[in-house]
């Protein structure tokens, strides 16, 4: 029984990894760097202080932390019903850590609602993809016997912008 569960979970993780790779391949032309490769912003700790930026955002929403993020912040799409204070934590400890980046990967500092960085829409689309895997595919797996398996950004990204498509060798 445990081996069957592991096999199904591995299959779901591979599906998520494959879907992420296909998605990145399909959109790579939009991000092509001169000479080939994928132009992906990297964290810039010398110019961007994520802790200070998050502290400033927390201060700016003081007293509204439990209101829906979509009412507190502009242009929130997927997580609009989540409490605003929790949204900041999800961005900082979920997305940022899962991809090994800082806020500037998806956002323009001090213009947080801007959609100028395509990575922001990619993150939204990947969020929807993971939701479909969790709520439709995994939930429908009878072999799990009612146990809820979950995938998230870390399942494939493992702290890297590009999702892992292979396991490290022994």
Structure description:
It is built from 6 helices and no strands. It starts with a helix and ends in a 13-residue tail after the last helix. It is mainly alpha-helical. It is globular and about 45 Å long. The protein has helices at 2-27, 50-60, 69-72, 84-99, 118-138, 153-157. It has 2 domains: 1-37 and 117-170, no CATH class; 42-116, no CATH class.
N-end to C-end Cα span: 27 Å
Q: What can be said about the biggest beta sheet?
A: none
How would you classify the helix and strand content by structural class? mainly alpha
Q: What string gives the helices and strands in order?
A: HHHHHH
> Which percent range describes the beta-strand content?
under 5%
Low-confidence stretches: 13-41
Which key features would you list for this structure?
single chain, 6 helices, mainly alpha, 170 residues, globular
Outline:
The chain has two domains: 1-37 and 117-170, no CATH class; 42-116, no CATH class.
Layout of strands and helices, then pairs:
Blueprint: H1 2-27, H2 50-60, H3 69-72, H4 84-99, H5 118-138, H6 153-157
């Amino acid at each position: 029984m445990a081996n069957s569960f592991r096999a199904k979970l591995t299959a779901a993780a591979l599906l998520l990894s494959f879907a992420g790779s296909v998605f990145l391949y399909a959109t790579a032309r939009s991000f092509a760097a001169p000479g080939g490769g994928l132009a992906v912003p990297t964290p810039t700790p010398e110019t961007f202080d994520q802790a200070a930026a998050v502290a400033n955002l927390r201060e700016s929403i003081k007293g509204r932390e439990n209101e829906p993020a979509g009412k507190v912040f502009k242009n929130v799409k997927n997580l609009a019903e989540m409490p605003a204070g929790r949204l900041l934590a999800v961005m900082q400890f979920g997305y940022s850590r899962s991809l090994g980046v800082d806020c500037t990967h998806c956002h323009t500092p001090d213009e947080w609602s801007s959609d100028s960085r395509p990575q922001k829409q990619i993150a939204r689309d990947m969020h929807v993809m993971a939701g479909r895997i969790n709520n439709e595919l995994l939930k429908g797996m009878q072999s799990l016997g009612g146990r809820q398996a979950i995938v998230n950004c870390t399942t494939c990204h493992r702290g890297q912008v590009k999702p892992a498509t292979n396991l490290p060798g022994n």
